[in-house]
Amino acid sequence: MLTVRAPATSANLGSGFDVFGVALGTPADVVRVERAPKTTISVTGAGSEYIPEDPAQNTVGAVADALDAPARIHIDKGVRPSSGLGSSAASAAAAAVALNDLYDRGYTREELVPIAAEGEALVSGEAHADNVAPSLLGGFTIATDDGVTQVDAQIPVVACLPETAVSTRDARDVIPDSAALEDVVDTVGNAATLTVGMTRNDPDLVGRGMEDAIVTPKRTSLIDGYEQVRTAALDAGATGVTVSGAGPGVLAVCHQHDQRAVASAMLEAFEAVGIDSRAYQTRVGEGARLYRE
Ligand SMILES: Nc1ncnc2c1ncn2[C@@H]1O[C@H](COP(=O)(O)OP(=O)(O)O)[C@@H](O)[C@H]1O
Ligand SMILES: N[C@@H](CCOP(=O)(O)O)C(=O)O
């Protein structure tokens, strides 16, 4: 039996739609696997009642297929589905690491990225790798068609998750087909600023580089209370705030000494519009970890 813990992730970071992602210290999914003649899946934990156990509909089943690695698989969800915190990706990344080891497939973590992304194709319609890459590799990742670049960043963040749900598939339907050159120029500048901020562990540069005028504004209407939560977090000292992945999670970057105040402000702002939420006070963290039993 093998066990893998794979972290939640926050994709896009505003200016890096479908490209940027960070691993979060918490929460995480835990996946256990053992060899079996055919794949079966059981699920417990956060939001497990919304997750299909049919391998043909679960991201983990897609990964088992892609690796030709049938197994009895148990998923203990720490990351609630439809959260914007890479729930479907955390399970897929964990399964990819576990099954690769269980069947001695010999893939590197980088080579597992497109394999784990098969799970994302199943649930969101596109094999975007911006969640599975940081969940597999940790830190800050830049995932493009040419491969993944990883930086071991140390940035404090607050990921605030309202009790509402947004499906990534639905949130992809509101994305514009084209963008004004002016907005593209701004976004390229912001993405470059954010990347330098990650390499310098500078929350001010990272926060400034999270601005995005193309995708994020189209999605915020799907998240009740978003503008109030964003304003509250910035007033409490956050250096940048954006939609986490496709939402409804909201990601704030901050200095360590402001983290508690930022988390409280975000929780209170959601509460003021009648929505319960929970705030993960964490930092950019490590990738999937394998435990042998
Ligand atoms: N192992 C899994 N973990 C989480 N969600 C899964 C899994 N397998 C399939 N799903 C489905 O994927 C959808 C959630 O994925 P998605 O909308 O991308 O949310 P998230 O942002 O939390 O990843 C739900 O419909 C859920 O039932
Ligand atoms: N780039 C994707 C990221 C989706 O992240 P999730 O955590 O909401 O699954 C997108 O923005 O659609």
TrEMBL record:
Domain GHMP kinase N-terminal: 60-139
Chain segments annotated as coiled-coil in the UniProt record: none
EC number per UniProt: 2.7.1.39
The UniProt record lists the keyword ATP-binding: yes
Residues binding ATP: R80, P81, S82, S83, G84, L85, G86, S87, S88, A89, A90
GO BP annotations, alphabetical order: threonine biosynthetic process
Gene Ontology CC: cytoplasm
Location relative to the cell: Cytoplasm
UniProt GO molecular function: ATP binding; homoserine kinase activity
Associated pathway: Amino-acid biosynthesis; L-threonine biosynthesis; L-threonine from L-aspartate: step 4/5
Gene3D superfamilies the UniProt entry points to: 3.30.230.10, GHMP kinase, C-terminal domain
Annotated ranges, domain GHMP kinase C-terminal: 198-271
Keyword terms: Amino-acid biosynthesis, ATP-binding, Cytoplasm, Kinase, Nucleotide-binding, Threonine biosynthesis, Transferase
Keyword ATP-binding attributed: yes
InterPro entries the UniProt entry points to: GHMP_kinase_C_dom (IPR013750), GHMP_kinase_C_sf (IPR036554), GHMP_kinase_N_dom (IPR006204), Homoserine_kinase (IPR000870), Ribosomal_Su5_D2-typ_SF (IPR020568), Ribsml_uS5_D2-typ_fold_subgr (IPR014721)
Domain of life: Archaea
Catalytically driven reaction(s): L-homoserine + ATP = O-phospho-L-homoserine + ADP + H(+)
Family note: Belongs to the GHMP kinase family. Homoserine kinase subfamily.
Function: Catalyzes the ATP-dependent phosphorylation of L-homoserine to L-homoserine phosphate.
Name this protein carries in UniProt: Homoserine kinase
Gene that encodes the chain: thrB
